[in-house]
Every structure is written in C-alpha cells, then in structure tokens.
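Same chain as my last thread, 208 residues:
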Amino acid sequence: MEEEKLTWADVMRGFEESRKRNEELGIYLKEAVSDLKAMFAESKAEYEKRQARLDVQMAETNKKINGISDSNGMFAEEFFFNTLSEKKEFAGIHFDEVEDDIAHTQKQPDGKRLKDQIDILMTNAASVAVIEVKYRARKDDVETLAGRKLRNFKILFPEYKGLKVYLGLAALAFEDDAVEEARKYGIGLLQQVGETVENAADWEVKAY
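reply #2:
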C-alpha cells in the first residue's frame, strides 16, 4: 500500500486546527479564571460579612460580661461597707469612722496628676485601715494594694501621716495564691460568711 504524502495544505490545515484549539482553550481558561475571581470575591465578601457579625456579637458579649463584673463589684462593696460600718472592727482594732468610695487627686511637682480611690477607709485616733474590695481576689490584687495603693494613700492622704496604716482585702472568694501573697505582706483578709464578715487570715496584720 502506497503511503500518503503530507502536503503543504495538510500542514497549514493542522496549524489552523491547532490555533483554533488553542483559542478555544484560552477562552475556556479565561472564563474559568473569571469564575474563580468571582467566587473568591463572593467568598471574601461573605467572610467580611461574617466577621462583622462576629465583631458585633463579641462586643455585645463583652458588654454583658463587663456589666456582670461591675454589678458583682458593686454588690461586694456595698455588702462589706454596710457590715464594717456596723461592726467598726478590723484586725482586732476598733475604729470610730468608716467611709467608702473616697477619691483624691493631687497635682505632682512634675505637673502630672496623681489620682486614686479607696474602697473603704476606717479611722480612729491612732490607726487607719485601707480596705480594698474585690468580688474575687487574686494575687495581683494583693500586690497592687501593698504597692501602688499604699504609696498613693500616703501621698494623697497626708492628714493621716503618723498613724498606723493597716491594709485589708475584702472579697467574696480568694484564689489560693492571693491568700499566700497576703500572708507574705501581712495584709488582713475579710470574707463573706452568710450575712456577716469573718477574718480569713490566720496571721497578724502588719502596721505600715
């Protein structure tokens, strides 16, 4: 059988068919890329929409949590203030006056303003007790009371200079490391037991 010879027309026809196939493939790929871009754009828009909804939900949740925390703190402060106002006793010492929520501000030599607030302040002729109130007391609450709070008190309340200063932490619950830290600093602990307040420290409260 005689073998067919490939003519120039056959070659050109092959090139033309190949060109058409490439064009068709190019159109297909262009459409596919366009579809993918549209899909990604839609996915991004949906993601951003979901993220926006999530941000709103998180903000509302945080607002509720902060509201609960504030309410718990207010309840604890009111409870301990009312009880201490009636008993007028802390660390085995009787006090004549009991005040709550006392804020002082003082301009410092460098021009900055020092501001702090005392939850409960108990005083007599020889002593003063600075009581910090927390719903749940943690170790850093003890460190803050023995550090910044005590320093600021001595600056902002010069009228009590020369008096013995006792520190107390009142809370509805204490974390274990908070108790150990309070023991180290000699800070008194007050805890709610039923409708009254009891000393939760088995050590002598230090006079600063």
